[in-house]
Amino acid sequence: MQLEAVSSTDRLRKYCEKLYHLSIECPILARGVNTMARKSLYMCTECGQDFSGWLGRCTNCGAWNTMAEVPDTKDKKKKQAAQGSWVQYDEAESNSKPLIMNEMEADVQRRLRTGIDELDQVLGQGFVRGSLVLLGGDPGIGKSTLALQALGSFPEETTLYISGEESAEQIRLRANRLGLADKAIRLLTVTDFDAIEKVLTELRPQLAVIDSIQTVYSSDLAAAPGSVSQIREATMGLLRIAKAMNITLILTGHVTKDGTVAGPRVLEHMVDVVLYFEGEKDTSVRLLRAVKNRFGATDELGVFEMTDRGLISVTETSALLTSGRPRHIAGSVVTSTMEGTRPLLLEIQALTVASPYGTPTRMTQGIDRSRLSLLLAVMAKSLRVDMSQFDTYVNVTGGIRIAETAADLAIMSAVISTFREEPLHLNAVVLGEVGLTGEVRAVSQMAKRVEAGTKAGWNSFVLPAAGRERMKRFENTQNGDVKLYYVSTVQEAFDLLFSGKNQDV
Ligand code: TYD
Ligand code: MG
Predict the structure, then answer these.
(1) Pick the CATH number of 320-499 from 2.30.130.10, 3.40.50.150, 3.30.230.10, 3.30.930.10
(2) Residue 240: which pLDDT band, with cuts at 50, 70 and 90?
(3) Which of the ligands is closest to the CA of residue 143?
(4) What is the CA radius of gyration of the chain?
(5) Other beta carbons within 10 Å of 274
(6) Is residue 416 a contact partner of residue 320, using CB atoms and an 8 Å limit?
(7) pLDDT tens digits, residue range 412-465?
(8) Among 144, 145, 250, 275, which residue has the most ligand 1 atoms within 8 Å of its CB, making it the best to mutate?
């Protein structure tokens, strides 16, 4: 028995050896090995994903018929671009010696201040020389206007405006509107990357605008202009130029709401500074926010007003977004938020209606939806206000997003106000974070927020009692007109705002 088993195992081993040997020789497998070793030669023109072979449908983004062959080049420059490096190929080899940090020049002198206060503030004292700045925003928000205004504040021989979107005549008309008619700004309407590189090399401006990055294309790539691979390639090339020639480049870029079309979001990580222009088309207020800044803070907000003579910096913003607010309306409460170092008064609106479905809708604009759910839960437990049968909508006016918890008490008050169909009895600015047990917690920079409110004409404030100590100095500087009401629980705030009880100052 045992003998037989050994011999059968042996036979099996021999058979396997034979098979193994065969597999090496197998032409199908051999071809498979070769395919693995080949470099990637195809790219999806929608999402930029590389593939080793042609596919009818991109397995990354699902788009059909988007494969394009990428020329397998031995060219150093292209190879370096493909590797994602902005350092010149030869330079990279010769610059391998480390620098000593404290022996390097400080970059204090290397900022380009535009004189447009709000823009300089968001950038952190102006543009850094040799940086790549992406200015994103919806079409028609004012990107080209701001870029042209920024150029207009420097000597003509140091700037260049490259446009692929508008004709020279259109840009000239805009410059006239902006009061830049006398400026001899250099203008170029090209879209080819090689032409842009050539002119930047020849003219060597300090500051150049490329309007927009979506129109720049490189003829080396098969992909269509505006596709992700073109945008990525163009940005990579411009990054190399900006760093090698010390030119500050402003790239404008359209962002689509859904973000599905090739947008500038894919290149956020490549550039030094990302600014987003926000605002609602039907109002003239425009907000400039730094989403990324390698040379400064990202929480700064620039406020502009779009006028018939271009964008104007708005420095006094406290009443900007609450000025047209109707008084004594249920569901509307004003709070004071901090945008970077600047306090901003905002109106929070809420609406509740009986829900026709089993699961009520919670919809928010400008605040986190899960934060609303949390506040509704606290309301149910601490105030016995049950919203489980009601759809709840909360909106922050002016298109602003509140990222901090200081608006909790105001959101809750707005919801209760609309639910009871009762405007606040006390016409006050409401501040405070709400904790899970129904306590009202302190918020940062209370005095600054209250001060902004008083500047905008408010004289009643509902504040967390936990921050009372920190308000002493502010209280001493005020005359009797300003009334500060301190609350420590949501119940106290509720009594104060809706029935006028507990009105000790
Ligand atoms: P624009 O800068 O062309 O927007 P983008 O480059 O972001 O697409 O600005 C377009 C809008 O701005 C347009 O609706 C007109 C308005 N505008 C003014 O109100 N005043 C002005 O002085 C200028 C130049 C534009
Ligand atoms: Mg434009």
Answers:
(1) 3.30.230.10
(2) very high
(3) 1
(4) 31
(5) 25
(6) no
(7) 999 999 999 999 998 899 999 999 999 999 999 999 999 989 988 898 999 999
(8) 145
